[in-house]
Amino acid sequence: MSNEMMPFWTGDYYNEGSGRDGIFDKLKEECGVFGVFGHPEAASLSYYGLHALQHRGEESAGLCVTNGTEFNYHRGMGLVKEVFDRDKLSSLQGECSIGHVRYSTSGDSRLTNAQPLIFKYRDGDLAVATNGNIVNAPKIRRELEQSGSIFQTTSDTEVIAHLIARSSKEFVEAAKDALSQLVGGFAFLLMTNDKLLVASDPNGLRPISMARLGDAYLFSSETCAFEVVGAEIIRDIRPGELLVLDAKGLREDRYAEPQRKALCAMEYIYFARPDSDLNGSNLHSARKRMGQMMAQESFVDADVVTGVPDSSISAAIGYAEQTGIPYELGLIKNKYTGRTFIQPSQELRELGVKMKLSAVRRVVEGKRVVMIDDSIVRGTTSRRIVNLLREAGATEVHVRITSPPFKNPCFYGIDTPDRGELIASSRSIEEMRREINADSLEFLSAEGLIQAVGGDNKDDYKGGMCMACFDNDYPTRTDFNGEEKYGCIS
């Protein structure tokens, strides 16, 4: 490979091309949605809400606002603070808005796929924003194209607009029919000139919650966004539920009967911010309990405990509290490398890890270290971080993962590698330990995870979580793409 300076990203801007990070093999967040109904500063509230949800998608951001008669919208590639400025926000006038931050799991990374998607149809304007993935979208898309529909994007979200537009029913009933045809994990915000619809999939796979700010209603993928704007959390949107907001107020309805509750386990483990709540459980507290359960299941004598920033810090604190081993900041994350990160040559590739993550030599040198992390995907990240600690002088590195082994791809909105690339799908724990160069390696049991999460669904099947990435037990059909199977069995 040439020594020519080259960027890690493949396009003209950071995160173009699905935002793959060539160094770290962490799972990629899905998307985030934020909606406002009945507030004169809807666009500004949505801006702050999307900023709080930025961790869920860094490729594109968009806002659509209605003043009751027409839409105003703006979308762009990049981070929220780069897509919007004061002038753009001031042009988005109206009391109802929906916003979106995107990381593509379906559809190309380009502006035409940035959401909210905007459409003209017989009854006026329609804007759509969603978090998640529609498993049977390719099948529906083929059928619609065969009957004459012309798609403008490669995003699976567009199928719902076509289904609504082709219906002869009024908007709410047409939306119900359209939603009932979808299979997957999704949280939808659908907006017309005078209505806002909010829907959750029948299994509640993707999170979405409701809050109040004065007389206005707010909706968000995570409750942390409500805290930012000073809104009072009301509740989560229930599986299969459809909320209709218009001049008459809020109406609670549903388009499907609820199926078994199956909120994505990785929301608890990794994706959601620690200051968010899911199903009555605070994420920081839940992750601390994961660390405590990990200590009970897989104690190892050591000198210090450290967590891989940022998502594993809470669990590392829990592990330390449970064992009495001191918690230390043995690893520091550099938050300011994203847009200037370069790869001078293949030979210097490993230096990229040190640009984003550093081991604190004075903390780990001569010490037996317990390294807490939330998951292992391909194993390359874990190996690099273990080696960072060893290079900084750690005498032993014991890796503890606060989730079961990640063996199966996700169909519901998380960008996961093929099964063959998931290290746990083909290797034993001992083989994985050798692969990542650790002195020991243990994973949290499924039972320990369920107990740690707790919350309102502790008595539900699997604690109300989808754990298919660990156990291959998918809550919906997944055989819509020519593969005669349920789940993902290769």
Automatic annotation (TrEMBL):
UniProt KW Iron-sulfur keyword:
yes
Instruction: Describe the reaction catalysed, as an equation.
Output: 5-phospho-beta-D-ribosylamine + L-glutamate + diphosphate = 5-phospho-alpha-D-ribose 1-diphosphate + L-glutamine + H2O
Give the pathway listed in the UniProt entry for this protein. Purine metabolism; IMP biosynthesis via de novo pathway; N(1)-(5-phospho-D-ribosyl)glycinamide from 5-phospho-alpha-D-ribose 1-diphosphate: step 1/2
* Binding positions for Mg(2+) per the UniProt entry: 311, 373-374
**EC number(s) reported in the record:** 2.4.2.14
Residues annotated to bind [4Fe-4S] cluster:
264, 410, 466, 469
The cofactor named in the record is: [4Fe-4S] cluster; Mg(2+)
Q: Name one Pfam family in it.
A: GATase_6
Q: State the protein's purpose.
A: Catalyzes the formation of phosphoribosylamine from phosphoribosylpyrophosphate (PRPP) and glutamine.
Family stated for the protein in its record: In the C-terminal section; belongs to the purine/pyrimidine phosphoribosyltransferase family.
The record ties this protein, via NCBIfam families, to: purF (TIGR01134)
Protein known as: Amidophosphoribosyltransferase
Instruction: Say which species the protein is native to.
Output: Paenibacillus aceti
